[in-house]
Automatic annotation (TrEMBL):
Keywords: Copper, Membrane, Metal-binding, Transmembrane, Transmembrane helix
Compartments where located: Cell envelope
GO CC terms of this entry: cell envelope; membrane
Lineage summary: Bacteria, Pseudomonadati, Pseudomonadota, Gammaproteobacteria, sulfur-oxidizing symbionts
Listed GO MF terms: copper ion binding; cytochrome-c oxidase activity
Superkingdom classification of source: Bacteria
Entries under InterPro entries matching the protein: CcO_II-like_C (IPR002429), Copper_CuA (IPR001505), Cupredoxin (IPR008972), NosZ/Cyto_c_oxidase_sub2 (IPR051403)
Record organism: Solemya elarraichensis gill symbiont
Pfam name, any one: COX2
Name the record gives this protein: Cytochrome C oxidase subunit II
Amino acid sequence: MQDPLKAICDDPLERRWVWISLFLAVVFGVILGFYALGNNLHPPSNVEPIDSATLHLSGEFAEDNLGVKENGDGTLTVTMVAARYGFFPPVIEVPTDTPVKFRMASADVLHGVHVPYTNAATMIVPGYVSEFTTSFPKAGKYSFLCNEYCGLGHDSMWSRLNVVEKSAGGVN
């Protein structure tokens, strides 16, 4: 059998490294595939479209409906809008050790959110509702940071998350 890489490169050492690289890429792909299957990792399937141009006028993402709401089962839902150049509402307060579902929509362009030192992070794609659930074990002040470049004011796009002790916690 003739080496198919011979037409591309003449040097045997170079062909050997190409084959090693291809082999490693396949091995890593198989490992990642088994890891994803074994841990039930899959792309989001609850795609929820929304009209970004009118989301602020009525419904869940209207200005009066933004913020923290109690669900009645001990969990909270935080509804936020990402728009140039901030997250609205600008300050959120949640108690520690409480499941918090974040529902976010973009009013304009692609944004991302990341809360440093926590596992809270997602992309906020225009035209869709982004959702993730987390809890915060430690009280403190955290920043919501935009981690997708969204324009000239991107570096100043942030919001504040105040995590308070559960006994002192109220909902704002």
